[in-house]
Write a structure and sequence with these properties.
Blueprint (H helix, E strand, L loop, with lengths): L15 E5 L4 H12 L3 E6 L2 H14 L4 E6 L5 H9 L11 E4 L17 H22 L5 E5 L22 H25 L5 E5 L8 H8 L3 H14 L3 H4 L1 H8 L8 E4 L7 E3 L9 H15 L13
Parallel strand pairs: 1-2, 1-4, 2-3, 4-5, 5-6, 6-7
Antiparallel strand pairs: 7-8
Helix pairs in contact: 3-4, 4-5, 4-10, 5-10, 6-7
Amino acid sequence: MTRWNTSHIPDQTGRSAVVTGANSGIGYVTARELARRGARVLLACRNETRGIAALDRLRTEVPTAEAEFRPLDLADLSSVRDFAATLDDFDGDRLDLLINNAGVMALPYRTTADGFEMQFGTNHLGHFALTGLLLPKLLATPGARVVTVSSMLHALADLDYSDLNSEHSYRRWIAYARSKSANLLFVHELARRLAAAGSQVVAAAAHPGYASTNLQTAGVRMEGRTAAERMAEAANRVLAQSPDGGALGTLCAATAPHMRPDSFVGPRSGLRGAPAPSFRAPWTRKDANSERLWAASEQLTGVRYDFSRPAAAF
């Protein structure tokens, strides 16, 4: 069986894509490869300086690219709303691909602008709100897909629905795992609701395996733990695959023909290699869990999904 790689990405000419966290790592590679295949790509990044630098780099590497940058801070729901509200001039009423890639990992305890635990708030709630606000565009676009990036580390922990914001207990890796389980539960419930509405929009998930990005070092750098930062950097050099390898799962989920709703793809070995269907913990496929998280997410973000609303009403 042929192992999937970027040469298998179909022509993306005429398609549009929003990629969150596209200033570096697998987000940047995802945006670059979509642009290389002809997609019009929007780099949605929190840091304007890094976002513009990434855009310049992309245009250098892909001179024919149709790409632009716009600011988006997923840890601030007002920023999410502002981003969505100003997106009408990006390919009109259509949006072919929404790549929910941005994330934070194993941070010391802190909260978002809206008071949510940072990992849950950024990795899940920010993307939940963004997807809901862009849903009219997705529903109006034949063949649209939503791809959310999770992690194999989701298997470390199911959600604690009595303490979603880790107010009573906080362990950074458990909080990260729960946010990644939330990503998979979100995809599961979104796929169910899209099917119930008769929509052909595909919601799928991907993971990068162990890819060398700045996620591994951000948390310890915040705390000034120089030795731990050096250890993480050494592990990245020795054990991790490149961001190009890590992005393959996302690109496969976004572009491979006949991708099934609620799929979860990543490196064949779990850590590195060509994308293939991946293991996921059984709690991430339980309807009762996904329904409970969905209700809580709507309440916390104030975003209500409408699967019937026409794009013109956006």
